[in-house]
Records
---
Amino acid sequence: MEVADFIVVGGGVYGASLAYELVIRGSSVTVLEAGRLASRASGGPGKRGVRANGRNSRELVLAREALAIWPALAAELGGDTGFERLGGLMLVGSMAEYGEIGLARAEAHQRLQSGHGIGSRLVGGSELRALEPGVGESEIAALFNPHEGIADQQLTARAYAAAAGKLGASVREATEVDRFGAQPRPWVRLGDGSELVARRAIVLATNFGTNALLERSGRPHLPLWTMAPQVLMFQAKDDYQPRHLAGHLQKILSVKPLAEGITMISGGMRGRWDDDTARGRPVESDIQESLDVAASVFPPLRDGVLVAADASSPETYTPDGLPYLDFLDEDHRVFVATGWHGHGFAIAPAVAKHVAEWLTTGRRGDLLAPFRIRRR
Ligand SMILES: Cc1cc2nc3c(=O)[nH]c(=O)nc-3n(C[C@H](O)[C@H](O)[C@H](O)COP(=O)(O)OP(=O)(O)OC[C@H]3O[C@@H](n4cnc5c(N)ncnc54)[C@H](O)[C@@H]3O)c2cc1C
């Protein structure tokens, strides 16, 4: 049965934002989500960092565009995104610990970012301590970007899906795609054996489910793998919280102040992935290490209570740290958008616009060229 111009498989932030951007360009869209909307990488506890700091240079223009979209996105979609413009810090550790390389690296990042129109600046120790009073003496500087912040991944994906639905997209939860094909026209087969046909293309926004779906469809795997980032929810003594979204140039650390005095601590620790359940589990030894790193940078985080540890949300990674945004075939019938490497959320609003433009006009913009499956 022919259902729409585009069938989008996956109802995370990418499936939902692509559906919305396709619909507002006049296309008809059906979204098929195996579980609930925003229940995997775009689900789970806490919030996501919306930042340009630390990004690969090929993503910086997308990051700049996304930072401009985020503040007004909730109004555009007519649904909350939980975006808070807290400002973002990329901290630089002490000369004693890291020598002078840290500052030189931070300066290089700052120049790279300003070359791409991103308004970050290097702040020294005294300004850093005025901005972020809880930061320890070991931190000598930071790259500061006042436009960065945090947003709620579940609210955002659902707001996109609801906005797409209001404009006519069909959004179906609990609908797993068993396999797909491209001939004679793009089609998907559902678990109950029924088939749906797209007039133009199928879009796989299936994140960790991508290679399994490719395999069931008789296609080769893409070079990617799944990991589950580990996040900790920590309640510090005396309700201390950092004020900013903060990362670290030399340490594995990301902190985000959440509601009710909770600080989310993450930034690179991984849970133990279980292929059978398609979920990750927290790794006990890494929990303490993460807390120790956080307390070494923010001493007031030394005392308090670990409220929760979670590693249930799977994310896909690629060998070079860049996503795949490309058609699988020459005939442009199956498009894939995956491999976000733990930082896909922040740039989703910009990526979705560019991908939708490509899908509807047939012209790929230069910005998406680095994300070809066959890198050049
Ligand atoms: C713990 C954690 C912290 C993160 N922190 C940040 C951060 O601070 N900043 C940032 O920018 N990014 C961050 N990220 C990354 C970001 O959240 C992800 O890149 C983004 O959510 C990926 O969205 P997605 O739509 O591609 O994937 P998902 O949200 O996983 O959506 C894919 C969907 O496809 C569905 N699906 C799969 N196979 C099928 C099938 N066969 N049929 C139907 N449906 C199918 C799945 O059920 C799933 O809902 C973090 C990720 C995690 C897990």
---
Amino acid sequence: MGTKKIVIVGGGAGGLALASKLGRKLGLSAKADVLLIDRSPIHIWKPKLHEVAVGVIDQSIEGLLYRDHGLKNGYRYLRGSLEAVDPDAKTIQLSPLYNDSNELLMGQRTVEYDYLVLALGGVSNSFKTPGAESQCIFLDSLASAEKFHTQLLDGLMLLNETQQRLSIGIVGAGATGVELAAELHHVIESVREFGYQNIAKHHLDIHLVEAAPKILPQLPDRVSGRAQAVLDKIGVHLHLGVQVKEVTKEGFLTQDGTLIPADIKVWAAGVKGPDVFADLTKLPITARNQVEVDACMRVKGHSDIYALGDCAQLILGSGKPVPPRAQAASQMADTLYKNILNRLKGRDEAAFEYRDYGSLVSLSRFSAVGNLMGNLRQGDFFVEGHLARFMYLSLYHRHLASLFGWFSALVYRFAQKLLRWQRPKLKLH
Ligand SMILES: Cc1cc2nc3c(=O)[nH]c(=O)nc-3n(C[C@H](O)[C@H](O)[C@H](O)COP(=O)(O)OP(=O)(O)OC[C@H]3O[C@@H](n4cnc5c(N)ncnc54)[C@H](O)[C@@H]3O)c2cc1C
């Protein structure tokens, strides 16, 4: 039997962790051919996208180049965007590749696999709200974070020249919306240090619109209550229990006919699977564009195809689906890593067990809040302030450890800190 070809599509929180571990274990010693495909050449951990969007982190420092990383960690990297899967031929098809001037670089490509892992993540769900797709930025990819950054810089430039107000509206007060609102306030507080002398805090209006009666609706009342107190204090306008029925150039039109004005509009409500999944007619795709997997993360009816993270629908024993979270994608990558090794040795695969460690929400430098679960105590408990911030950052460190191993992750983080120390604290270009 020849060397098995393991193809992973999507190098995000789950896919890149899996590619790194399989690469180090099998790829470096040529026991398997591990190929990672991603549409982007750079990996940014998705929970940091809002920080890229506002310029608090610089992707040239925090971004990881798949090609370099793959060379050292035993996987090959191919830039491409999945457009079709043929489970009978055991091939996938990648879309044609264009350059920035929209010139064709490469036509469609076909890639063969022995085992395929779909790890394409999710996208924001506009629930078909009129105008949302055309007017809003969906903060779900590096490209969208960069688009927001450009609009923010244009807005700040105008604000500095004219002192007319700038209004930013965010639909969805889940973790993404709340973290973005807090981060934006931090930016407006800091821009004077960076030459925007004419801008004052009160020039920026941040509107956070949420259909549920509280922010962070998935989290315990104490966590959302505390986060709400922080947002109130920094002057974010909260519109709770408000449903957006249409998005126009001027802003968000609500069910009761009110217009919430917004120059920059962000849609951060709801998660669904990637749009391309709607075209994968040979696979079991749900109404929310996720692919159905069994307890061992095998796509139902296709034992050589696996899926993990936000693009997969795995129903737990409790009847609930695994939530779309970085910690879930990372745990799934760990289980799938063991399962693929077992499978190559002809052993049984284990069912995925989700461990909810709680949720932490960063409120920029103002703090973090969250609830932790686990062995420390029965049930969950509330954390905030420095401890919560420390635990929030440790999630990222754990992600880096899965990409590099603990020691190299520490060195990598130290190198990043040195580079950041040299550069301005805000990327305003
Ligand atoms: C702003 C923000 C803040 C968040 N904060 C938290 C948090 O604090 N805690 C938490 O647990 N979760 C958080 N999340 C959710 C978390 O980021 C996701 O649940 C997690 O990243 C999912 O991991 P994944 O591996 O499934 O996909 P992703 O990490 O989304 O990675 C998907 C990868 O697939 C690639 N891809 C997509 N389509 C294609 C295609 N057609 N072809 C090739 N490649 C493709 C993408 O480029 C990307 O690299 C946050 C999300 C956002 C947007």
